[in-house]
């Protein structure tokens, strides 16, 4: 996203007046949190740690207008897309570390990782605002779960129910030597 970020302690205030006046005297607001902070287009973005493994994106601007609210929503979506992209990149790096040819296609926030000697296998990750869907194509056996494990670890947290639907290919014996080699090195 081209952001310069920092780790900060941020506080929640009941009003703008409390923030502007009382903070000068050392008042730390009603709640303090550790956050990753950044600013884009005059909008402050805070990724606040609200629980052990749970974060929430908060955006603020001194003058909220309809245009600013729309831009905040766009930034939140951009941030979500970047977060999914990090998860996909982890799978790609692991595949590349095995020497497997890989290609990533990105289309409106949906990702397809093609891999294999002829790029014949793929992992597809798609999402809307509340749902992330991952699917594996052309792969048989338990290697399917190994391919998606990093994505699931990054994009889920203990408070979220992770729904996994296994295809019949999961139970199949892997006879494809290329997949056997990739899965051993993965």
Secondary structure layout plus pairing:
Blueprint (H helix, E strand, L loop, with lengths): L5 E7 L3 H6 L9 E10 L2 E9 L2 E7 L5 H32 L4 E6 L2 E6 L5 E7 L4 E6 L5 H13 L21 H9 L1
Antiparallel strand pairs: 1-2, 2-3, 3-4, 5-6, 6-7, 7-8
Helix pairs in contact: 2-3
Task: Explain how this protein is built.
The structure is a single chain. This protein has helices at 16-21, 66-97, 143-155, 177-185; strands at residues 6-12, 31-40, 43-51, 54-60, 102-107, 110-115, 121-127, 132-137. With 186 residues, it is of the alpha+beta class. The strands form two sheets. Strands 1-2-3-4 form a four-stranded antiparallel beta sheet, with helices on one face. α2 packs antiparallel against α3. The chain is elongated, with a radius of gyration of 21 Å. The model has no long low-confidence stretch (mean pLDDT 81).
Describe, in short, the structure shown:
By secondary structure, the protein is of the alpha+beta class.
Q: Give the ordered list of helices and strands.
A: EHEEEHEEEEHH
Structural Rg: 21 Å
Helical/strand content category = alpha+beta
Helix content: 25-40%
Distance between the termini: 29 Å
Sheet with the most strands, sense and barrel status: 4 strands, antiparallel
Strand portion, in percent? 25-35%
Q: Whole-number average pLDDT?
A: 81
Instruction: Provide a count of the helices.
Output: 4
Shape: elongated
The residue ranges in which pLDDT falls below 50 over 5 or more consecutive positions are none
DSSP E strands, number: 8
Q: Widest sheet: strand order?
A: 1-2-3-4
